[in-house]
């Protein structure tokens, strides 16, 4: 996995949620994975399983957080 904000300290926590989303899409029936709304509970459940096994993983929706961190700030507020 490559990215501007990925290094040895956060590779594993970012990799597993994304890998589960890719696996969901690649190995499941297309009818089951065509809706993000339907897939989201399964991905959340998988993340909870990882945490139960003490596998550190980030939130599924980290892109919004990273956008806020890297976006320009104007007059001490983020553009929305």
Automatic annotation (TrEMBL):
One of its GO terms (molecular function) is beta-N-acetylhexosaminidase activity. Transmembrane segments: none annotated. It comes from the Eukaryota. GO terms for biological process: carbohydrate metabolic process; ganglioside catabolic process; glycosaminoglycan metabolic process. Keywords: Hydrolase, Signal, Zymogen. InterPro entries: Beta_hexosaminidase_sua/sub (IPR025705), GH (IPR017853), Glyco_hydro_20_cat (IPR015883). GO terms for cellular component: lysosome; membrane. Pfam families: Glyco_hydro_20 (PF00728). Coiled coil: none annotated. Residues 1-29 form the Glycoside hydrolase family 20 catalytic domain. Its EC number is 3.2.1.52. It catalyses: N-acetyl-beta-D-6-sulfogalactosaminyl-(1->4)-alpha-L-iduronyl-(1->3)-N-acetyl-D-6-sulfogalactosamine + H2O = alpha-L-iduronyl-(1->3)-N-acetyl-D-6-sulfogalactosamine + N-acetyl-D-6-sulfogalactosamine; N-acetyl-beta-D-galactosaminyl-(1->4)-beta-D-3-sulfogalactosyl-(1->4)-beta-D-glucosyl-(1<->1')-ceramide + H2O = a beta-D-3-sulfogalactosyl-(1->4)-beta-D-glucosyl-(1<->1')-ceramide + N-acetyl-beta-D-galactosamine; a ganglioside GM2 + H2O = a ganglioside GM3 + N-acetyl-beta-D-galactosamine; a ganglioside GM2 (d18:1(4E)) + H2O = a ganglioside GM3 (d18:1(4E)) + N-acetyl-beta-D-galactosamine. There are 3 beta-hexosaminidase isozymes: isozyme A (hexosaminidase A) is a heterodimer composed of one subunit alpha and one subunit beta (chain A and B); isozyme B (hexosaminidase B) is a homodimer of two beta subunits (two chains A and B); isozyme S (hexosaminidase S) is a homodimer of two alpha subunits. The composition of the dimer (isozyme A versus isozyme S) has a significant effect on the substrate specificity of the alpha subunit active site. Hydrolyzes the non-reducing end N-acetyl-D-hexosamine and/or sulfated N-acetyl-D-hexosamine of glycoconjugates, such as the oligosaccharide moieties from proteins and neutral glycolipids, or from certain mucopolysaccharides. The isozyme S is as active as the isozyme A on the anionic bis-sulfated glycans, the chondroitin-6-sulfate trisaccharide (C6S-3), and the dermatan sulfate pentasaccharide, and the sulfated glycosphingolipid SM2. The isozyme B does not hydrolyze each of these substrates, however hydrolyzes efficiently neutral oligosaccharide. Belongs to the glycosyl hydrolase 20 family. This is Beta-hexosaminidase subunit alpha.
């Amino acid at each position: 996995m490559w990215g501007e904000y990925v290094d040895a300290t956060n590779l594993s926590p970012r990799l597993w949620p994304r890998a589960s989303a890719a696996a969901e899409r690649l190995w499941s029936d297309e009818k089951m994975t065509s809706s993000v709304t339907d897939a989201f509970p399964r991905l959340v459940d998988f993340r909870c399983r990882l945490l139960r096994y003490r596998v550190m993983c980030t939130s599924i929706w980290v892109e919004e957080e990273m956008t806020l961190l890297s976006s320009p700030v104007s007059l001490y507020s983020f553009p929305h």
